Amino acid sequence: MQKTKIVCTIGPSSWDPKVLKKMIENGMNVARINAAYSDVAELERVAKLVRSISKEVALMLDIKGSDVRLNDFGEAIELKKGQEIIVGNSSEDKIYPKNHLTLYKDVKKGQVIFFDDGSVKAEITGVWSNKIHCKILEGKVLKPGKSMNTPGIYLSIPTVTTTDKEQIEFAIKDKWDFVAASYIRDARDAREVKKAVEGTDLKIIAKIEEGMGVSNIDEILEIFDGIMVARGDMGVELPFEKLPVIQKELIRKCNEAAKPVITATQVLDSMIKNPSPTRAEISDVANAIWDGTDAIMTSGETSAGEYPAETVETISRIAREIEQHDTPSLISIGPGPDQEFKIDYALANAAFDMCISADVTKVLAISRLGQLPRLLARYDLPVPIYTLVQSDTLMRQLHLTKGIKAFKFNKFYKDRDSAIDGMLRFAKEKNLITKDDRILIVGRSSVETFHPNLFEYIDMREKEL
């Protein structure tokens, strides 16, 4: 079983049902929709498309938040070094920041603005009449709808905008699985996103894209359910030579917190136009997997590229090869503030020892909240972790975590032994186990009167169902 998960951005290149089906067959686990380019009608259309092909693929809404973007001003603008452009403050202007019209209040003369993930660099020469006057320093083309980065400037834009809230409300109603929030800087931003999904089953993913988010990662991780290492904007906001170290550190912290981490942006960028990746891109993906990332995420490769299905297949091929060289490791994971999870930590540590010292071929975990299998996934066990959960939503959400294959299983039994036999029969019916397997069953079983903790070694060569 492939451990590494694949998140794919859905766009025009992947709207064809045949193409999307092939992407799923090639290993896609999560469909990401970039809300910067979508309205609620588009979200609904893409969700129906994904669900018509697979009920197991999770849906992720990526909200704009404080991600500032240009308006859709039509034809791309040719640029020359030294040329002046004016960033206005209303729809009457040729160019303006469509989701932060008061950007002019946050910036001042002498500061630098980047457009389109750093492909255009401009210096602010002055701010007057509520407009930002800029001189082009680098770049040849300014494209509509692209990102704006203001390194070192704390923007006054809300973390969750009115449009974001409307899209989140739809995602809640339509039973989506994840919300990814842009430019999370600190606990204050994190709490604002948390409030928007409070009382729902949605899991929230923090996109770490600039220096404050990196510095405050510990407090952010306490509130969010996982993070995305968004290297595109991060490479503009921070010195690019720092990215490899930052990426490794963020992945390490997520592994220690037992929370999923996504490595994103330009992973196979050349495959937007070419059927094969560069050797450097192959190494980039491989190193992210070696570092412990849960998932690799595509952007333009699958939303606007010419080879979306081939891109997914390429990531799968790299992952399967690298995973053969994984070394199981009992990393230090503290129990944290949640007392109810202490038993899960103890069970996970014992399961690691059992998998390494005994002849275990499969782990069968049963979980109410998903914490135990996420803990097990941190250890890079040499066996698959088949996880039984009670809800479709949790099943899909666990498919963002490496090494886990989840199934809905909401049956209840009169006693512990009946529960164990029921789990084994279910796994056998799903062709997850064979008569030659040695299985470790771990978790909290579905017994009618209570949920006893399980830690059971089953040799199927000696077991009759």
From TrEMBL:
Residue intervals of the Pyruvate kinase C-terminal domain: 346-448
UniProt keyword annotation of RNA-binding present: no
Keyword Kinase part of the UniProt annotation: yes
Catalytic activity, EC: 2.7.1.40
Sequence ranges assigned to domain Pyruvate kinase barrel in this UniProt record: 1-312
Source species, domain of life: Bacteria
Stretches that traverse the bilayer: none
Entries under Pfam families matching the protein: PK, PK_C
Molecular function GO labels: ATP binding; kinase activity; magnesium ion binding; potassium ion binding; pyruvate kinase activity
Keywords attached to this entry: ATP-binding, Glycolysis, Kinase, Magnesium, Metal-binding, Nucleotide-binding, Pyruvate, Transferase
Annotated signal sequence range: none
Catalytic activity: pyruvate + ATP = phosphoenolpyruvate + ADP + H(+)
Pathway: Carbohydrate degradation; glycolysis; pyruvate from D-glyceraldehyde 3-phosphate: step 5/5
Family from the record: Belongs to the pyruvate kinase family.
Protein name, UniProt field: Pyruvate kinase
Organism for this UniProt entry: Candidatus Dojkabacteria bacterium
Gene name of this polypeptide: pyk
